[in-house]
Amino acid sequence: MNSQIAKKVQSLTTAEEMRNQTKLVMQPYANWEEYLTPAPLSIAILGELVFISSKTDFSINKNPPKDGYKYIRYPDSFRACLMQVCNSGWGAFNEAHKNMDQIRLHTMAVPDYMKTAVKILFNENDEVIQALLPGQVENIRVIADDCLELAIATEKRFTDVINIIQELLEACVNAEHFYGQELDAIKKKLDEAKLRKQSSEEATKRSEKAMKAMEEQLKEAYDSYNKAMDSLPGGWEMIGMDFVAGLSEGVTTFINGVTAVVTDPLLPIYTAVGKIATKIALTKRHAEGQESAVDDIDIINIYSKSAEMLMCTVNVQEFVQDNTINWKDLYDQKNKYTATNFQAKQFKRINESLEKSPNCKAKNDAQDICDEGIAICAELEKYAPEGKCEEAKTKDLIERIRNLTKSARSFDSKSKDITKSPSLAPKPPMMYKEESKSEKMRASQRASENARFRVEQSRAQLNKTREIYEKSVENMEKNQKELTEILITMRNCEVKEIDFNTTIQMLVKGMDAMGRVKEQWEKMVRFFQMVSNIVKTCLSRTLKDFASTSEKTKSLSYNAKLFCKDLLYNQAFQATNIASLVHMISATYSEVSTKHLMDRVSSLGKLMTMDKEKPEFLSEREQLQNSCDEAQKAILLLVLKNKNEFERKSAARVEKIDKELLAILPVAAPEEIKSIQAAVQSGFAEEEKGESGFTEEEKGESGFTAEEEAGYV
């Protein structure tokens, strides 16, 4: 039964399945709707500014800054300033279209490099791996760096537009052309723009911290592996494999979590001045209190331990059968060793590693689980040599062990929620190969419980993702409606009514819309920083460890070299996963830009060069207005279509897991099902914030079937 469950889980977690799962889980956070919907509106606003600029001109150079203007070229002419905004905006959209298409083409090549890298990794010849793998991984890094440059260049163009608008508004404030409520409103908008900039800078610092933390995480994983394997009792390979599985999943969880930080869903939501100010005030308050330096990366680092903690608790619960403790298997009479001592050491190691993290609720929850795990293991060690204890004590221990498992499951579910990691995680190739060869398979009951827990976790995760996506689309539609109504109001103004205040309102809305487009480009920049840094860490740290690892470590079938291979695979796979997500976004943007944006951008360019006095100018303006409205409607239809497609795929994924995995599990007791469901819900309910290029002789035997190899690429 256990072998059948393992194979079914592996078939549900092939590389292709996991890429699709990543897209599903991340779609509400990396959604391109936020990316595209402001674009036609931005173009329409630029068109209105061209029209307004044909009216009365005046100077805004009354009280210039001491050092002069940084971005405005012609402060003596408001009309010229408006045209500068339009020119800059036109250039930004042209650059976005060109660069996004190049990103689409670049990311298309990443899966092929991944396939070749996996083929090399499956090879048993170390010299071949060391000679050929760096080249393939380097190819992915080069693509990431090229895309990074393209994203940075595009982000800079939109930043330039925002800077010009911002400085233009500041010049208008200084020139004292308007007073009262209008002045206060503009000042608030300018403050909001500065806070957005501050938020962006903080995100960049967070990204830099994440890369350093990633390298430390990999070093810690490698050191932990070596220390744990040295202390592993003889003949306990399967317990060692459980430990390594938790360690490997921890690395993957951390990388997924950092990716989630890159696509922070709060960033676009905090657009109102009050909300941004509240967010920053809360951050400052935390900085002054007990939760001093805690941030997203610290939280993710803590939650990345969840898989190891769960594995330890499950291994302790394995000795509880029905309502008794299996003292016979718990204590090794020959070597005078209690089986749970190994788990106690791992709880202590995790607890020590958590000490480095700043104080927060996540740390407290994790340490509570570790402390209770250590205490339970100490109790078991005390009674294990005699093989018995009082009935009341036995009952108390069993209850504590079950509660510990429930807490660990809840913490792991919260970890999956916060880090956006898939609930069903594939075993790395070398581990899966060694486990498949092993004669010591886990008890079917335990394997069934674990599979049932993962099924329930997957269902809860996808259901929550559907809810968040639903709200995301609703917010997008609401924002779209508000901005469109403002634009219609402005268009309905008679020419003689278009005064200075109307122009200022248009500029403010233009800055808002451009700001939203820019935020999404900032996400793209951090996406590629992620891919590039994962690969650099992979090349510098893990490949170095692989090259330096000797076979002096404990003579297990799964040794340090195979562990390094799995770490290399995990990193390359995560880099490919992110690239696949970006490819989805870039392909959609390129398609929409081609069909609905670039004709409007060209029309804007034409409008800017026309004689404002000729009737053709008004005709071109009307045409631009209509085409922008059509683009808005077309994008909205595409949003709704993709929302339906997302719901269909989510439901299909849950149905597939139920049909293929849940169907083969034995019937469980109602109490067990309720316990699992309660643990999962408590975790998700509460929120904190190919060809290889080498000869047949070089290839050697991988030990994998063609089907298995295909599953890993």
Automatic annotation (TrEMBL):
Superkingdom of origin organism? Eukaryota
Q: What is this protein called?
A: Uncharacterized protein
Name the source organism: Pangasius djambal
